[in-house]
Backbone:
């Protein structure tokens, strides 16, 4: 009985891992968690306000939104389409008693028009595809904060270069 349950768990985990690998290959953005210092820099420089609507496109394990909710009182919506990363996000939400909304969904099929802030940690290929959607759907004043990768067709009004001493990645901030 125990062996059967263990085998089923191993099978389920293997299937989730395989699904995640396939999604990562198709989407062009594998799940790579941001380090804590880079998250803190992004949140600090965004100057989030209580009640703001914050989107995290490719939210991974959900840490950024959960930290923003706890520190700043934001309303958060995270999109993730990799099964294992999404399950990690759900676990983080549960253990931190968070109220952010996590969606197992492709953000290209969702409207971004209500966002006050949008956080990105997506590969360059995905950002090339995303740029026209951001230009079309975001309202004037929306802040876009990108971890590591420049957003094509946008000019950052602030850039924080990679800092080896502080162990932070490059952060770009754009305003629509």
Residues:
């Amino acid at each position: 009985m125990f062996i059967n349950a263990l085998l089923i768990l191993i099978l389920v985990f293997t299937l989730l891992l395989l699904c995640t690998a396939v999604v990562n290959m198709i989407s062009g953005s594998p799940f790579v968690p941001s380090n804590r210092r880079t998250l803190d820099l992004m949140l600090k420089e965004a100057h989030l306000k209580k009640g703001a609507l914050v989107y995290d496109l490719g939210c991974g394990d959900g840490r950024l939104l959960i930290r923003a909710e706890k520190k700043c009182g934001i309303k958060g919506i995270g999109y993730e389409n990799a099964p294992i990363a999404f399950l990690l996000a759900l676990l983080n939400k549960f253990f931190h008693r968070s109220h952010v909304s996590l969606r197992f969904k492709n953000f290209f099929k969702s409207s971004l028009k209500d966002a006050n802030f949008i956080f990105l940690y997506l590969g360059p290929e995905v950002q090339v595809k995303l740029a026209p959607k951001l230009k079309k759907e975001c309202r004037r004043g929306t802040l876009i904060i990108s971890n590591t990768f420049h957003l094509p067709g946008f000019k950052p009004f602030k850039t924080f270069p990679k800092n080896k001493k502080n162990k932070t990645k490059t952060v770009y901030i754009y305003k629509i």
The longest strand covers residues 75-80. The chain has one domain: 2-175. The two ends are 58 Å apart (CA to CA).
